[in-house]
Amino acid sequence: MQNAKELVSAYMDEVWVNRNTEALDKYISAERFIQHNPHLDNGLDALQGFLPLLFNNMMPEGTWEVKRIIAEQDMVVVHSLAKPAPAALGMAVVDIFRTENGKIVEHWDVTTDVPEKTVSGNAIV
């Protein structure tokens, strides 16, 4: 069985980077997926309904790039750059996942727009 970091890394790569929504049930618990995103309901069905809309309608030319993954026991944090179009600055996204028995069972996320410049001169992603 994969550890939590390997599981979430594979999920992010297959589903978010490569947009394979058919693979969701391989990674997300169908029995109990707790969602903390304020725009989505709990459960695998809500995610299965949302991702095709996101990828095909909201971000048809978009990309998702995982920048770093940090894990401790059953908790995994992913820091990514989501771009709705190639020329867009995009959004910095931090996803937090909790895993159990080889599946993702809980999810939180926070996003912020990438600014053209920062006071420090350091990128946010």
Walkthrough of the structure:
- By secondary structure, this protein is of the alpha+beta class.
- The protein has 3 helices and 5 strands, in the order H-H-E-H-E-E-E-E.
- The chain has a single domain, classed as Nuclear Transport Factor 2, Chain: A, CATH 3.10.450.50.
- The protein has helices at 4-17, 24-27, 44-58, and strands at residues 34-35, 63-72, 75-83, 91-100, 103-113.
- Strand 3 (75-83) and strand 4 (91-100) form a beta hairpin.
- The mean pLDDT is 97.
What's the CATH topology name? Nuclear Transport Factor 2, Chain: A
Give the total of domains: 1
The secondary structure category is: alpha+beta
Strand order, main sheet: write it out. 1-5-4-3-2
Q: How confident overall, as mean pLDDT? A: 97
Largest sheet properties: 5 strands, mixed
Radius of gyration: 15 Å
- Total beta strand runs: 5
Q: DSSP helix count?
A: 3
Choose one word for the global shape.
globular
| % residues in beta strands | 25-35%
User: Regions with pLDDT < 50 over 5+ consecutive residues?
Assistant: none
Straight-line distance between termini? 31 Å
Task: Classify the helix fraction into a percent range.
Answer: 25-40%
CATH classification, class level: Alpha Beta
Q: In the CATH hierarchy, what is the architecture at level 2?
A: Roll
